Amino acid sequence: MTNQVKIFDTTLRDGEQALPASLSVKEKLQIALALERLGVDIIEAGFPVSSPGDFKSVQMIAREIKNSTVAGLSRAVPADIDACGEALKVADQFRIHTFIATSEIHVNNKLRKSQDDVVEMAVAAVKRARQYTDDIEFSCEDAGRTEIGYLARMVEAVIAAGATTVNIPDTVGYTTPTEFGGIIRQLFERVPNIDKATISVHCHNDLGLAVANSLAAIENGARQVEGTINGIGERAGNSSLEEIAMILQTRHALYGLNTNINSKEISRTSKLVSQLCNMPVQANKAIVGANAFSHSSGIHQDGVLKAQNTYEIMTPESVGINKNNLNMTSRSGRHVIKHRLQELGYKDTDYDLEAIYSAFLNLADKKGQVYDYDLEALLFFDQQKH
Ligand code: KIV
Ligand code: ZN
C-alpha cells in the first residue's frame, strides 16, 4: 500500500454551501489558487448543475488551475454528470465526483428506491462519467450509517464499473473513531477488487470527531482524505485539512505517511478563507487559531525561551507564522519582560528590571494583557523618575 495520502479539498463545495452568502466567481478563483499553492491534490470546485454561477466558477477554476486536479460534484443522474463533464472539459486534468446515498434511512426515506435500484443507478452514473474522463470518484452518501454488507456490495459494483476513487463519507458525523476505522477495515476485508481504487474518507464534525475519524480511516488503509480549510462546512463543518496535514507531518515517525501539502502556506490560506468566507477562526483552533502558538503561563514562557520544543510540538514557522507569541500577563516572569524589551531594542543597562517588573505586575493585574506600548510607557515613566 502506498505511503502517500491524497488531500482532497472541498472548501469551495461542501464549505461554501454552508456560508450565509455565496462567494463570487473571482473569490472562488482566489481560493482555488491558494489551494493550488498549498499543494492540495484535488480541488472540488463546485456543483456545476446547481446554478449557472456554480457552473461558471467550476469552469473558470478548471481553466486556471494547473497543478491540482479539479473536480466537480454530481448526483448519480445523467443531467448532473453531463453538466460536470461540460464545465470541467477545459481542464488539463479533471475528476467527476458522483454520489448516491446508501444508508437505509436515506434509501427508504429520501430516495424511496430499492437497494438494487440504487446500485444500478450508481453503476450507470460511473459508466456515464467515464465518457468524459478516466478519473471518477464515487461517494456512498451516509456510509457511516450504512449496513456493511450493502456498503461492500456498492463499493465492489462501482469499482467494477470504473470508479478509481471510492469515498466513504460520515455524512452526519455520527460514527466514532473505532467504529469508522472498523468500517474501512471491513471494506478491505470484504471487497475483492478494492485494490483497484483509492479509498477516500469524508467526515463531518457533528460530534467533534471529524479529524479523529479521518485519522482512524487512514490507519485502516484510506489513502485520500477530504475536508476543508478551517473545517468550514455543513452544520458543525468538515474535517480540517490543516489539522490532518500537520498530524501526518508532526507524527511522521509514527505513521510514515506523506502528503503534498506545503505546510508553510497553511496560515496564509487559512486567513484568506476566513476573510473571504466571513467565517472567523476560533482563537484556540488547532494549527490556525490566534492562540495556537501563544504561551501565557510563566512556566511555559520560561520553557520555550530556553528550548522551543518544551511546549511546542511544531514550530510556528512550519505553518507559515513568523514566530510564537509570549502573552505578557500577570503569570509572566521577569525573563519574558527582559526578552521582550531586548526584542524592542533596549539594553539591560537602559532600565531597572526589578522596578519595571513590579510596575508591570501592577498593570497586568488591572489590565489582563500588557502590550509592547504599555511596556515602553512603563520604561519611559521609570526613566522620568531618575
Ligand atoms: O457529506 C457527504 O456525504 C458529501 C458527499 C456529497 C460526498 O458531502
Ligand atoms: Zn459532506
Write up this protein.
The structure is a single chain. The chain is 46% helix and 13% strand. The protein has 386 residues and is of the alpha/beta class. Strands 1-2-3-4-5-6-7-8 form an 8-stranded parallel β-barrel, surrounded by 8 helices. α13 links the parallel β9 and β10. The relative contact order is 0.10. The chain binds 3-methyl-2-oxobutanoic acid and zinc ion. 3-methyl-2-oxobutanoic acid (KIV) binds at residues 14, 99, 139, 141, 167, 169, 171, 202, 204.
Brief digest:
It catalyses: 3-methyl-2-oxobutanoate + acetyl-CoA + H2O = (2S)-2-isopropylmalate + CoA + H(+). With 386 residues, this protein is α/β, with parallel strands linked by helices. Helices cover 46% and strands 13% of the residues.
